[in-house]
Write a structure and sequence with these properties.
single chain, about 220 residues, alpha+beta, Jelly Rolls, 7-stranded antiparallel beta sheet, 3 helices, about 15% helix, about 30% strand, globular
Length: about 220
């Protein structure tokens, strides 16, 4: 059973909005959780399963409703609608947001096991997406890309995409500070920054890249 205050917000929230990927804004909230190590530990005890989409890992949801998580989501939803969405509306017409879903995700797919779709950037099925980085070890941030030309190579180059190649140009990066919530437009091509020895070794299972995903729709 989860602690009733597990997802309590920190009292030291550091909130700012910065340009990324051709000037589109990203909302960064540092020190978001009061007890981030406990959030990570609790999340890793969840039942992770392979998703139906091409995500290169596994996902999990809380089995039962949690009051502190609902309070966290309510607070973030208000901040995004009040402070972030107007900044996007000035650049691109955004739909009205009416809901927010969350889950936890682990990246553990070996680079040699990726499908062709997992080797290139993706866009999200929701207009606004958020990630809480829950790794004290270096496990990579989020990379944003712009398309170069109309044709993409088939198949794509092996491994995770972490640089300009295969018809995509690297356009921006979110630094993956522990306990940081990053909120960004889902329509920008992006991918996880999956690099280093850990993704090719047992570390991808023993100390996985864990994020909490927030999907605004």
């Amino acid at each position: 059973m989860l602690d009733s205050a597990l997802f309590e917000l920190s009292s030291n929230l550091n909130i700012r909005i910065e340009p990324i990927a051709d000037g589109l804004p990203v909302m960064l909230i540092d020190d978001v959780y009061a007890r981030p190590d406990e959030v990570r530990a609790a999340a890793l005890r969840l039942n992770f399963v392979a998703p139906s989409d091409p995500y290169p890992g596994r996902i999990a949801k809380l089995a039962e409703p949690d009051g502190s998580l609902e309070a966290f989501l309510d607070c973030v939803f208000v901040m995004v609608r009040r402070d972030y969405l107007p900044r996007l509306d000035a650049l691109r017409r955004m739909p009205f947001l009416s809901r927010l879903h969350t889950d936890f995700a682990i990246v553990d797919r070996h680079p040699e096991e990726l499908t062709n779709q997992q080797r290139i950037p993706h866009t999200d099925p929701v207009p606004i997406f958020g990630l809480v980085y829950l790794n004290r070890e270096e496990r990579g941030g989020t990379l944003f890309f712009r398309r170069r030309g109309d044709q993409l190579p088939t198949p794509a180059s092996p491994g995770y995409l972490t640089e300009s190649r295969d018809g995509f140009e690297l356009a921006g990066r979110i630094e993956p500070h522990f306990n940081r919530l990053a909120i960004y437009p889902g329509f920008i091509p992006h991918s996880g920054e999956i690099a280093g020895d850990w993704i090719r070794s047992r570390e991808r299972h023993l100390s996985p890249r864990l994020t909490q995903r927030l999907m605004f729709g």
